[in-house]
Structure formats: structure tokens, C-alpha cells
Amino acid sequence: MTATVQPCNLKNYAKAKGLPVEFLHKHGLRDQKYQGQPAVRISYRGMDGSEEAVRYRIALKKSEEGDDRFRWRTASKARLYGLWRLTSIRKTDYVVLVEGESDAQTLWYHGIAALGIPGASNWKPEYAEHLEGIERIYAVMEPDQGGDTLRQKLSASGIRDRLYLVDLEEHKDASGLYLSDRENFKDRFFSALKEAESWKDRRRAEIEVESRQAWAACKDVWY
User: Fold this and answer.
1) What percent of the chain stands above pLDDT 70?
2) 38: nearest Cα among 13, 8, 63
3) Backbone angles phi, psi at 21, to 5 degrees
4) CA distance 22 to 27
5) What confidence tens digit (pLDDT) does each residue in 27-73 have?
6) Measured between alpha carbons, how far is 60 from 39 in angstroms, rounded to an integer?
7) CA 222, CA 103: separation in Å to the nearest integer?
8) Of 35, 90, 98, 155, which is the most exposed, with the fewest CB atoms less than 10 Å away?
């Protein structure tokens, strides 16, 4: 028996993410048709609050063939999600970078400073300019190829000396952690931030391993 695929409208999206429809409306999400099919319209606003790009979510889940959940509006370009919140974010001493809009929305719902990257491969070096002056930059590392890609891109970025890598253990992302334990989500997420490893410490440990491996290889040659 084939499971019925739910249409990707705002009501179903809100239910799937455990977030109130009214909260999502406040952040610019609404129902809209995309090529005749139900979709959630996601507004990307700039620092001044004006709309700069639009992304459509056309499916709630990935398909067996791959990830085909999103479409950009014609002429829209990938950018950080949540830039209109930067003024308030800069009043704190941290920000959390997450993959995708729904994780950012989950963190905003709990009063946590966050920005969304619309896909791990979409991080661009110029995004670092938006993060100037923010003392700690946390990045949730999802346990998949996308997480590896994001880490590599952030490691080559100007933010790396302020970067802390967040591991949510068995949970793929912030939304997954929230849906698994809504009552204790905020405490558990902040615990994960406290346990985050700085990029500098991670890189130092990697260099030490590489050095030991290189020495072992040289020793085999010389002896």
C-alpha cells in the first residue's frame, strides 16, 4: 500500500515542523501555487526588511530519488536567511548557523539567534561580512555529506577563528532535536552549544594526527 503524500502547504509544513502557523506567517511564509501545485512561499528579506529573494518549498520530505524540495523564484539568488534579524543578533555575542529555513525558524521560535544557509553547498565567502563583530559563530554540523561540505566551506572562510562546531549527536538537525523532545529542547540545545568544539581546537587536533602519521611513514622509510 502506497503512503499518501501530503501537499506542501503552510498548514502541513507547520505541523511537520511543530511550529504555529501564525508564527510562520509573521516571518513571511504563506501558501502559493508553484507550477500549479501547492507550495510554501518563503520570503528572504534584507537588513532593511525588504524582500530580496523568494524560495518555494514544494515538498515536505525528500524523495527516494533525492532532494527535490525547493525552487528559487526566477532571478532570485541564494543568500543567508534571516538577514532582517541581524540588528538584534548583533546585540548578542553569538549566532547559530544552520542548514535551511526550518531550522532557523525553530531556533527563532525559542528566542535563539540564528541564520539559515539555504543548503550546505550555498555558503559564499562574502556572507562573512554579515557576521562581523559577532564574537561566537556556532554552526550545526549535520551528520551527512552536506555537513562535511559545510564544514569545509566554513573552514576556508574568514569566520573560522570564531567558529564553533555543534554536534547534535543522534539528531540530524535542530528541527529533529526539537521534534524529539519539545519540552526540553532549549536546554538541550544550549547544552550542545556549551559542548561545541572550536574550529581552532579541531584543526589543531587534526594537524597533530597528520604529523604523527607523517612521522610514522617517514620512520618506516628510514628504518
Assistant:
1) 91
2) 8
3) -60, -40
4) 9
5) 999 999 999 999 999 999 999 999 999 999 999 998 877 788 999 99
6) 9
7) 52
8) 35
Delineate the domains of the chain, giving CATH numbers in brackets: 1-77 (no CATH), 79-223 (3.40.1360.10)
End-to-end CA, the chain: 65
Distance CA 74, CA 71 (A): 9
* Amino acid found at 143: P
Assign 123 to helix, strand or coil.
coil
Stated as kind and residue range, the H or E segment containing 52 is: strand 51-57
Query: In this predicted model, what pLDDT tens digit does every residue of 79-98 receive, in sequence order?
Result: 999 999 999 999 999 999 99
In degrees and rounded to multiples of 5, residue 46 shows phi and psi of -85, -175
Residue-by-residue DSSP string for 62-88: -BTTB---EEEPTT-----BTGGGHHH
What the block records as the C-alpha cell of 32 is: 502559493
